[in-house]
Amino acid sequence: MVSDEERKVYSQWTEVDGDLTACDPDTAHIILESRLMFCKNDRSRSKYWSIPDGVDCLNDLAYQEDGLRSHKLDLYLPHDAVLRNGKSLPVYIDIHGGGFMYGHKELNRNFCTHLAKTGFAVFSINYTLMPQAGFMEQLREVELALAWIKTHLNQYPVSQDRVFITGDSAGATLGLYALAIEGSEQFAHTLDIAQSQLHPMGAAFVSGLFNLNPYVSMRPGSFTPEGLETDGLKLLAPNFFRTFKENGGEQLANLSYITAEAQLPPIFLNTSSDDFLQAETLNLALALDKQGCEFELHDVHVGKTQVLGHVYPVAMTWLEESQQTLQEIQAFSYSLL
């Protein structure tokens, strides 16, 4: 059960259970329990979330005119850039994580505003969560958001062509596949998803889930869970990835295929030794290296008495290690300008 007080707090940054009434009870249970687990972790951190001085927020810009919260985005701008009204400020587009089933753009507001403080305009996008959308639908919405941003960049004091993509966890998954669509006409054609023509200069991915093969190959009833943190997605994978699989997903989920087929821009990769998805980042780095793709890997060693965990630069921006990562992302991105 979710109390009214919990629902009020959690709904600030995620859907709780309002989208679960029409799905089967087993799916609803898995998603709700996963969301509540994430919510409890984020509630303790939310007390430390803040918008730094000198960052302006433009909230709830619609990238589809249907009134849905899931089709809106925010824009965060350094106030100095607003005053100067120039067209040189580089742009980041953030895709939040949450296992494809948790979170709104507000979940990453703390991270996005601190990234903006380092010298970027930052768009933060929403997309429809599981169970209302599968992987293909989420990816299509991300591309629609990118296309809207491409069309509307000239309305803001930002660069028109110095654009980067960032994402954490499941958001990094969507970000990598968006890069593949942008970097390969064949990839876009196979998925029947239009390219945005945004042409990102680079990307920064934090603790991503990149190898989708184990999930795409799942069959209903073929998996026995051990814990929701890592297994909830596997239980839901057959339905979530169904249309992706029908469109050639088993080949497209292969990291070797993605890195060979798509013209990928330089990618910044961040993980840590106590990140449960650390191997995903390391394996992507190996695949990129094998194809001669440009990347920068930051695998932070965590001492025996320390804890960083999953997506620490996004979830806990106040940490010294997080501040260092933000500066490293800034240095990486500015080196490409």
Automatic annotation (TrEMBL):
UniProtKB keywords: Hydrolase
A Pfam short name: BD-FAE
Annotated ranges, domain BD-FAE-like: 73-191
Gene Ontology molecular-function annotations: hydrolase activity
SUPFAM superfamilies: alpha/beta-Hydrolases (SSF53474)
Stored InterPro entries: AB_hydrolase_fold, BD-FAE-like_dom, GDXG_lipolytic_enzyme
PANTHER family to which the protein is assigned, alphabetical: AB HYDROLASE SUPERFAMILY PROTEIN C4A8.06C
Protein name stated in the entry: Esterase
